[in-house]
Design brief:
Elements (H helix, E strand, L loop, with lengths): L6 E8 L6 H13 L4 H22 L7 E8 L3 E8 L6 H5 L15 H9 L1 E8 L2 E9 H6 L2
Antiparallel strand pairs: 1-2, 2-3, 3-5, 4-5
Length: 148
């Protein structure tokens, strides 16, 4: 029985919004290197852009510099993602589950993108360790292939 091949990819961004373009470049690189369907790559891009742009907009308000690291592995069915940053502490998993409003019109501004990110991804887990936010989640490529 052969072992599953684990593919790895890592990239680093600064804390400025202009660096968000590096996410799309990384996704394009994955598209060339890994056998991942377009829907999964789209979902990965959407979740990364939402979570990282929130960090850039709100997490570095009082900081002159910052670093956001993204580590990804692909085991043939799941894309495992870990985002770590040195921004202000913020747990997006607490906000993502806010279902207090009955419909979108009644919902307070903010948090909708995070909620969408949590719905798209699986096993989103947050921890704050050594002055860093660490957020992990998975994108299930098998589920995406079967839901076409």
């Amino acid at each position: 029985m052969g072992e599953k091949r684990i593919n790895k990819h890592q990239f680093t961004l600064g804390h400025k919004v202009k660096d968000i373009d590096l996410i799309e470049l990384a996704i394009n690189d994955l598209n060339a290197k890994w056998d991942i369907d377009e829907k999964s790559l789209f979902q990965l891009n959407l979740v990364l852009e939402e979570l990282i742009s929130n960090t850039m907009f709100y997490g570095y308000l009082d900081k002159n510099s910052g670093k956001i690291e993204v580590d990804m592995t692909f085991d043939g069915s799941l894309i495992h993602v870990v985002i770590s940053d040195d921004a202000l502490a913020f747990d997006p998993t607490k906000l993502a589950n806010d279902t207090s409003a009955e419909n979108l019109e009644d919902r307070e501004i903010g948090g909708l993108g995070i909620m969408l990110s949590q719905k798209i991804s699986e096993d989103m887990i947050y921890k704050y360790q050594d002055d860093n936010n660490i957020l992990s989640f998975k994108i299930n490529t098998i589920k995406n292939k079967s839901s076409k």
